Amino acid sequence: MCVTAPVITSIAPTQGPSVGGSIVTLTGTNLGANDITSVTLVGIGASAVTWVTSTQVRVVTAAAAAGTGPVMLTSAAHGITSFSSYTYLEGTLCASL
What is the pLDDT of residues 9-51, one digit of tens each? Predict the structure, then answer.
């Protein structure tokens, strides 16, 4: 049986605070519910991964040092890296009042 590799076509947002807690949506193809084993952003594992559809997964970022790096989704059959990267910004982000 041939298993088609998952592909990430976009992530949104592409940056968030280094304290973590941001919800990031990964959009792509072949994002199987039972196939995803982990998601990392800048080498740090997401604190939560929620499968939405075969084309969308949402993750919650964990705390990390400020920096930019790849987004990697690992599946039971494949490991892939997004064409995009994620940036952890120093400190926290506050909404304007």
Answer: 999 999 999 999 999 999 999 888 788 889 999 999 999 999 9
**Residue 16, CA distances (Å) to 27, 28, 42, 94 in order:** 17, 21, 12, 11
Structure tokens at 58: 């949402």
Secondary structure (H, E, C), 17-60: ECCCCCEEEEEEECCCCCCEEEEEECCEECCEEEEEECCEEEEE
DSSP letter at 93 equals: -
pTM of the model: 0.88
Residue owning tokens 């592909």: 7
- Rounded to whole angstroms, the Cα distance separating 83 from 93 reads 25
Establish how many alpha carbons lie within 13 A of residue 38's alpha carbon, considering only the half-sphere containing its beta carbon.
10
Please give the Cα distance from 97 to 94 (Å, whole number). Answer: 9
Distance CA 59, CA 23 (A): 6
